[in-house]
Amino acid sequence: MTNRQVSPGMAFFTDFVVTGAVRGADVTSTPAEVTGLLGDAFVDSRTGPGQLLRCYRLVEVAWEREQEGDGWRGLYITVQAHRLDVPLSVDELATELAQAGFPLVEVAPDGVGCRRFVRADSRVGVLVDEENGQVLAMTAPAWFAPGPRGEPSPWSRESGRDRIRHLVGLGAPEREAWARRRQPDEADEAARWWWFLWVACRQLLPDEGQRRFGHERSAWEELALWLLGACEAAGVLDRTDAVCEIVRYGLLEPDTAVRACLDAIPVSRADVATRGSTPYARENLVAVDASRAAKRLSLAAGELLPRVRDRALRAEVEAWLELRTRLM
User: Fold this and answer.
1) Beta bridge partners of 151
2) Distance (Å, whole) CA 263 – CA 242
3) DSSP E strand stretches across the chain
4) In principle, which of 71, 185, 247, 258 could form an S-S bond with 300, CB 3.0–4.6 Å?
5) 263-279 pLDDT tens trace
């Protein structure tokens, strides 16, 4: 991270917040890779069909898979700080991170007694007891986010669904006219509004199989792509986030979606920063973030490989995936 002198205990926590990894193990690591990096002093438990949770005293890693025989897909890696014998103060943690050049950002409280902080670049969330300021847990990726995604909506869920049901029946010009009439003038409020609409849309979005028949497929996918484009334009999502949402919800054909993933990677394979070549330092943050984007996008593309027809696309994705364990 930096050459500053930090106690070993505190360094463990600050390194996790900055990197989203524990000794190189992160949410993209397979069970075998985690064993190689963190050792075999763990307890595995099946939390449900297709789910695996591994516990190393403070550190927990979770995976899922759709069916027996599939590879495990990482869900999260968590440092359970509430299990410490000596509590970790969020003020001390935040001070160390700020001095290192990686300050935490506080987002809206959860409403049930916890404060929430996040490092957006590493996608690490920090949950804190509101009463005593003690860190409860740190998780990557965070299930909450800074900005509009982390704020409570001022609009009701039902009103969002009503708007989406109306929008899916409109053509592109009518949608644009509708948005011009209703979009809030203030930028932050507009960002929250677009995010609210996208959340409502994805809650109503028919599954990919149902959307493969005629007009229903194109209407829902066009609306979803339009909303994601608006969220990106409003700054709620960056390009990596938007493309990963496109893949997650099956909004483009596999070859087209993979091309979108590869086009969104902001750095070449020859120039991408790796764990071995680039320290996690403030001056390297642009390169580190590009490497993180490359990892997320190549993994998203990798999920589509069984359905991709273009051999050149497959080869390029496979070349990126060979770099996965070295990316930031």
Assistant:
1) none
2) 13
3) 43-48, 51-56, 59-64, 73-79, 105-107, 114-119, 124-129, 135-140
4) 247
5) 999 999 999 999 999 99
Both tokens of 173, joined, read 């010009």
Predicted confidence band at 2 (pLDDT cuts at 50, 70, 90)?
very low
Q: In percent, how much of the chain has pLDDT > 90?
A: 85
User: If pLDDT is split at 50, 70 and 90, which confidence band does 59 have?
Assistant: very high
Q: How many other CB atoms are found less than 10 A from the CB of residue 3?
A: 7
Compute the distance between CA of residue 114 and CA of residue 99 in angstroms, rounded to an integer: 24
Burial of 104 (0-12, 13-18, 19+ CB in 10 A): buried
Q: Report d(CA 122, CA 141) in Å as an integer.
A: 8
Q: Which two tokens stand for residue 303?
A: 């999920």
Q: What is the largest CA-CA distance in the chain?
A: 62
Give CA–CA dist 24/22, Å, rounded. 5
Phi, psi of 149 (to 5 degrees): -70, -20
- Residue in the structure block whose two tokens are 């390169």: 287
Query: At 241, which amino acid appears?
Result: D
How many angstroms separate the CA atoms of 51 and 45, rounded?
9
Would the pTM of this model clear 0.85, i.e. be above it? yes
Helix (H) or strand (E) holding 239, with range, is helix 239-248
Distance of CA 56 to the CA centre of its chain: 23
